[in-house]
Design goal:
Mean pLDDT: 83
Shape: globular
Helix content: 55-70%
Number of strands: 4
Structural class: mainly alpha
Number of domains: 2
Largest sheet: 2 strands, antiparallel
Amino acid sequence: MDETRDCEQCGAVFAPRREHARFCSARCRVTWNRENARDPAAEASALDWSITAMRDATGRLAQVTGRHRPRAFAAITEAVWWVTIVDATLVRHHPDTYDAVLAGRRVAERRLIEGTLAGLRFVRNRMGQYLDPLDFIQPGQPGEPGDAHPGDGDACVMSWTWKPVPAPRLASLPPRGQAWERTRYRSYQSRLAGHTIGETFQQSAAFLELAAAQAARDAEKAFTVRPAMRI
């Protein structure tokens, strides 16, 4: 059977169309948000903190070279973690804003962003638990005395590339979970494999920062309008 969940608002059982879906309909999501209104300043602060952590993690990649491989792999793993955390937070708590910002991009750009983020979700789910970072990442070769390119070890990890990887084994997942992971895998193969680390994180982080900024504005606007609607 396909995966089902209980709607957090009405309790109805539904089959989620998105990985982080919590409600069976837009009406239930809006109702829940109205009944559980939070302090927009606190919410914006939490989102800002996550964005700052993501910005720091992705920005740090430009300062890491291949001379110390463990540190380089750790930096890439941390960037994957924070990008997917911010992405999941926006999809879960600000889905309308997320979709609106995405819809505002050109079709080709929108597909690229969606595919890149889905590919990073695949990396997050697989790296460390099923595959090592070296299975995903093709690093530059460190320079050795006498090498034709003795400076390669000083190359920034932003120039490293993602490797193609074999299709994952998904028998332990429910049918809908298998479908989601297959989609992530295809996105990884088409949008990440063969592309550079720098290209991947620049595209994804730029979109997420834009979506987070709009989410903060929308939350503040909703909080300002809500009291007037009650009069």
